[in-house]
Amino acid sequence: MLRRIALLALALGCDDTAAPSRNPRIERLVPEAAPPGARVEILGANFGGAGAPDAGPDAGDRSHFVAFGGVSARTDLWRHDRIAAEVPACARGETVVVVTVSGRPSDAVAFEALPAEPSDGGGGAGADARAACRESGSM
């Protein structure tokens, strides 16, 4: 009888020996499409400890970062279940977002980097960002 209960528990996924994944998990992006420079909310889990101070590269923490198509993004909020990131100037078209925490990457989630707003004729900050993308090999 005990053996049947154990087999039933295993069949139903009640194996208490399996540890939950500690990898970051992206549940959704808000919005799912935006131009470079826009703020995107990344909602999910395992981004860091509850109540922990802000993390991410802008806080000097290089083990926690967000990437849009492999390009690191600036973050201004980092909580255990929510990150606010800026779409990098180099992000283009259909791409993916990945959150890495202590070397552990999340699954890639689809994102569309919309065309940038027209600039003032090719100069200014937009030109500087494009030049930085070319120098980094991201463009």
Entry keywords:
10 strands; 139 residues; alpha+beta; six-stranded mixed sheet; disordered N terminus; four-stranded antiparallel sheet; elongated
Query: What is the 3D form?
Result: elongated
Taking all Cα atoms into account, the compactness measure Rg is: 20 Å
- State the major sheet: 6 strands, mixed
Identify low-pLDDT runs: 1-10, 14-18, 50-54
**End-to-end separation:** 64 Å
User: Total strand count, please?
Assistant: 10
Which structural class do you get from the secondary structure elements?
alpha+beta
Beta-strand content bin: 25-35%
Give the overall pLDDT as a whole number: 77
H/I helix tally: 2
Instruction: Tell me the series of helices and strands, N- to C-terminal.
Output: HEEEEEEEEEEH
Helix content, binned percent:
10-25%
Short description:
This protein has helices at residues 2-11, 124-136; strands at residues 25-30, 33-34, 39-45, 64-68, 71-72, 75-78, 82-86, 93-101, 104-105, 109-113. With 139 residues, the protein is an alpha+beta fold.
Describe what this molecule looks like in 3D:
- By secondary structure, the protein is of the alpha+beta class.
- The protein has two helices and ten strands; from the N terminus they run αββββββββββα.
- The strands form two sheets. Strands 2, 4, 5, 8, 9 and 10 form a six-stranded mixed sheet that branches.
- The longest helix has 13 residues.
- The N terminus is likely disordered.
Write the layout of secondary structure elements.
Blueprint: H1 2-11, E1 25-30, E2 33-34, E3 39-45, E4 64-68, E5 71-72, E6 75-78, E7 82-86, E8 93-101, E9 104-105, E10 109-113, H2 124-136
Parallel strand pairs: 2-10
Antiparallel strand pairs: 1-3, 3-7, 4-5, 4-8, 6-7, 8-9, 8-10
